Amino acid sequence: MDWTDQGIVLGRRRHGESAAVVTLLTREHGRHAGLVRGGTGKRGAALYQTGNLLQAHWRARLAEHLGTLTGELIDGIAARALDDPLRLAAVTAATALLDAALPEREPHPQLFDATLMLLRSVASASDSPVWGADYARWEVQCLADMGFGLDLRSCAATGATEGLAYVSPRTGRAVSHEAGTPYKDKLFALPPFLAESGVPGDAGDIAAALRMTGHFLERHVLGPHDRKLPPARMRFVDRWRRLATLEANSRL
Question: Cα angle vertex 140, ends 202, 53, to 5°?
């Protein structure tokens, strides 16, 4: 058994003296692990950094075996994010989330394409609120691809498509300002950039969006498998919360 596919590095852990087990998100073969001989050496550590895009070749005697993995670098995404702690945190959070949430060897080609687009945007962009909003939209897409799509198009109570201001933590459906205000303490605020295309988000909006998507990821994607949100993702959200506090204080 063998295949060749493009893969985004999601994680790497030491195996024995010099080998590593590397997990990739591949376009056609889903989340897939393999043994990399020399994976903890200088070349292996640089090549198999989380976020990098590889041309990967996997081989095993039987399909159910771990198999061996070799790779060639296509795009060194991780290196371009190293000089910015927030961008590096985004790359680490996205890859850790996929590693925790995706079932093994189940293809998600649209999510692969969306993830590659996001990581390249994060690694290259300088305006953090712009790519931060892209990251939050990506988590919404993750939810849809994993079977729990949010419905942010119309109010769950009235059917209205304008004035959407909240999201139900139970159903993931939008609620209008008029219908939701009496229950606002029990609802998530809907950041405007998620409700309307082209609307910019600030750090507070992005932090609110990540709080909401985190709830649904933990409840509907990770929770049924007794998993929690990865620490890397939680640290990423904490950075946005601190940025939101700094922005709010600067306006005083």
Answer: 95
